[in-house]
Design goal:
Shape: flat
Distance between the termini: 35 Å
Number of helices: 4
Helix content: 40-55%
Strand content: 15-25%
């Protein structure tokens, strides 16, 4: 838990929250709540990375590479 919010994954040392979003996150009411959460996290120096479940399923390597890039790690080096 970060303040009043729960996040899917949180990397404390990097201050990165990772959110995996289902289709309900495309609804206006949910988008508004997500924006409010993201602003709260941002005000506490936390970067929020959001990926839809579809992107996670269809482009898993992209999601992994993007997270690693935000952590300052080289995906190609780690693959070896």
């Amino acid at each position: 838990m970060i303040g009043p919010y729960i996040t899917d994954f949180y990397i404390h040392s990097a201050k990165i929250a990772i959110e995996l979003d289902g289709i309900q996150h495309e609804m206006l009411e949910t988008k508004t709540k997500d924006e409010k959460r993201d602003e709260y996290f941002k005000s506490h120096g936390i970067t929020v990375l959001r990926y839809s479940n579809a992107v996670l399923r269809e482009k898993f390597n992209f999601v992994c590479e993007d997270i690693l890039n935000h952590l300052g790690l080289d995906y190609e080096v780690l693959k070896k």
